[in-house]
Amino acid sequence: MQLSINGEKKLIEKDHLTITELLTIQEVKMPEMVTVEHNGDILDRASFDTTSVGDGDEIEFLYFMGGGQ
Amino acid sequence: MKFETKAIHGACEPDPVTGATTYPIYQTASFEYETAQEHSDVFHGRKFGHQYSRVTNPTVTSFESRINLLSNGLGTICTSSGMSAISTALMALTGAGDHIITGKTLFGGTHYLFRHVLENFGVEFSIVASTDVSAYENAIRPNTKAIFLETIGNPKLDVPNLKAISDIAKKHNIPLVVDCTTVTPYLLDAKTIGIDIIVLSTTKYLCGSGTTVGGSITDLGNYDWKNAKSDKIKELTKKLGEMAFLGRARRQIQSNIGSIMAPMNAFIAALGLDTLSLRMEKHCQNALELAQFFAHHPKVKSVAYPGLPTHPDHAIAKAQFGNRFGGLITIRVGSKKNAYHVIDETKLARTLVNIGDTKTLVAHPQSTIYRDFTLDEAGELGAHEDAIRISVGLEHIDDLKADFDQALQGI
Fold it and tell me: In this structure, is residue A69 part of a structural domain?
């Protein structure tokens, strides 16, 4: 599938992924500190394991820059 | 993982470059990027990275992560001092025309912050008796944006019922900010109690050695910022979601005021976390035994220590802090002259204004920290003319008893 991540088109070799899996695949640093926007919606951290992303979805990562777990 | 294990192993992986088991000091003002795009992405927060040490620094981030883990927090920001943690948190939550409710028994510097800084910028505040739960609710106004208090009032050493006050704050959708310096996350599970934000002076028990000034702010993830009363934070939830308060505190307040923790300070203070649990146990054990000694000493008029069954807040303290009561004692010895005599004659206890050191410390709060208060005002805060505040250290208890006994015998 193709995703837009922070405005950049990226090909992912899977049809569906959870946000948690996407953070791992993309090797996002300090994932506990990142805010994730999925198709315009800011996600609660509790939903990272259950929110699925699919072809054409737009993802934005944003850091507040502090220490997380 | 239990607290003691997390304090040693949690959020502190060896340095990936060198394998150093203690996170290194990154003593640099700024950080270089290979491309302008990457640099811009870091500035926009789209990519993790450090840009300038007035905003973030890896050594400080490492310390923040460790405090956050021990607090079960959502995120943590370290600051230049405990006072900068309080001021940054309150400035993030309020603006001109807003109102804060604060418990009365606060560290003197916090009183001065309200009087000389926040009020000057148009923030109103109401002071209520720290342990009077209903007084907090009665003081709430439509523009109340925060409730602030300390876990153990210093030097009065009264202990508010944090759960009851948290319930009131929640009922009215007001963030509850608590200064947990005197108990640390080791004695208080602030998240479970329902506190929204904790601030710490890391100078004290966290660092432990009395060497390094610093502070921290932790969002415990209990408050729903999407429904915040603060318009600025509410607006930020559209970008940062749950991280909106932290984003406001770090990116809009702290980085622009510049009240940052230096990397060297983060490194030194972080060393204290390894032994925090051991030291807190010993501080509490020594303080309880010394308080019992004072309670039976003929030259001591009264002893304030929450661990004594005679203390009015003993039951609340026992439940809140897991049957441990911190390392602070305040005694009264009949006159200012007597207080000065005891302070001057102790050989082991050092005369200085700090707490949470390995060394036992004594101070005369009325003529130092509370010098700008009237005697009546200072007395209401526990800083009576004849009061001595003692931060009990880690020396052998027999030596401490002997030291205070010889000093007290002279009055």
Answer: no
The reported pLDDT for the residue numbered A68 is 56
pLDDT in tens, A6-57: 888 999 988 889 999 999 999 888 888 899 999 999 999 899 999 999 999 9
Q: What's chain B's Rg over C-alpha atoms?
A: 21
Q: CB neighbours (10 Å) of residue B352?
A: 14
- Minimal CA separation from A23 to chain B, in Å: 12
Mutate to test the interface with B, among A4, A45, A63 (most CBs of B within 10 A): A63
Look up the ipTM and state it. Answer: 0.83
Contacts of B65 in chain A (CB under 8 A): 67-69
CB contact under 8 A, B65 and A62: no
Q: Which domain holds residue A38?
A: 2-63
Residues of A in contact with B75 (CB under 8 A): 32-33, 64, 66-68
Q: Report the pLDDT averaged over residues B226-236.
A: 94
Q: Tens digit of pLDDT for each residue in B305-323?
A: 999 999 999 999 999 999 9
A25 touches chain B (CB under 8 A): no
DSSP string, B339-400: HHHHHHH-SSSEESS--S-SS-EEE-GGGTTTTTS-HHHHHHTT--TTEEEEE--SS-HHHH
Domains of chain B (ranges, CATH numbers): 3-272 (3.40.640.10), 276-409 (3.90.1150.10)
Confidence (pLDDT) at B261: 98
pLDDT exceeds cutoff 80 at A65: no
Q: Which CATH number does the domain housing residue A25 bear?
A: 3.10.20.30
Q: How many domains are contained in chain A? A: 1
Residue A44 lies in a domain: yes
Look at A68 and B74 and tell me if their CB atoms are within 8 Å: yes
Asked if residue A8 is part of any domain, the answer here is yes
In a domain, A28, yes or no: yes
Q: Is B35 on the interface with A (CB under 8 A)?
A: no
